Amino acid sequence: MPLFSFTKKTPAPVVYPAELGAPVAGDFVPMSELKDEAFSGGALGQCIGVKPADGNICAPIDGVVSEVTETAHALVIQAGEIEILIHAGVHTVNMKGEGFKSHVKLGQVVRRGENVLTMDLWKVRNAGYDDTVIMAVSNSKDFAKVESIFTGKKVNAGDGVLKVSK
């Protein structure tokens, strides 16, 4: 065992208010404009979407992967008390994993900006699905406020888009 370790095995504690970065670059989509009622209506928590410019989906904050779907179209990252669902595309579970690749495993520590999923935009679009990447704080009710803080149209991966306050 080395005397000094330069890689952390656990993420740093979450400081509130916590800022979540956009999971992908592209066109910002407010929650009310998402084409999935479960998300746009808030059933899955406060969320935002991004119409992706590319298929590289990144971690929005330092955390631990607490769930990865078999089809690799969605995952959950736990950052302290915050549960963040990242869902690649709308109804893409029907693609049965075709066009999706997970780069993480259950229990893996991830850093903000680290590539966690890849979505083949061509395959998703040609299969007739909406490729919007949705990021939701699935336990929004546990916090005093979860709000969108992005006001522009074009967003870069990592740009602050949601703020979670205790």
Walk me through this protein's architecture:
This protein has 166 residues and is mainly beta. The protein has one domain (19-153): Glucose Permease (Domain IIA) (Distorted Sandwich), CATH 2.70.70. It is built from 2 helices and 14 strands, in the order ββαββββββββαββββ. Strand 5 and strand 6 (74-79) form a beta hairpin.
Q: Would you kindly provide a brief summary of this structure?
A:
The chain has a single domain (19-153), classed as Glucose Permease (Domain IIA) (Distorted Sandwich), CATH 2.70.70.10. By secondary structure, it is mostly beta strands.
Provide tags for this entry.
globular; 2 helices; mainly beta; 8-stranded antiparallel sheet; 166 residues; 42% strand; Glucose Permease (Domain IIA); 3-stranded antiparallel sheet
Mean pLDDT: 94
How big is the Rg?
15 Å
β-strand percent reads 35-45%
Structural class, by secondary structure, is mainly beta
Number of helices: 2
CATH architecture: Distorted Sandwich
- N-to-C SSE string, H for helix and E for strand: EEHEEEEEEEEHEEEE
Number of domains: 1
CATH superfamily: Glucose Permease (Domain IIA)
N→C terminal distance: 38 Å
The first-level CATH class name: Mainly Beta
Helix content: under 10%
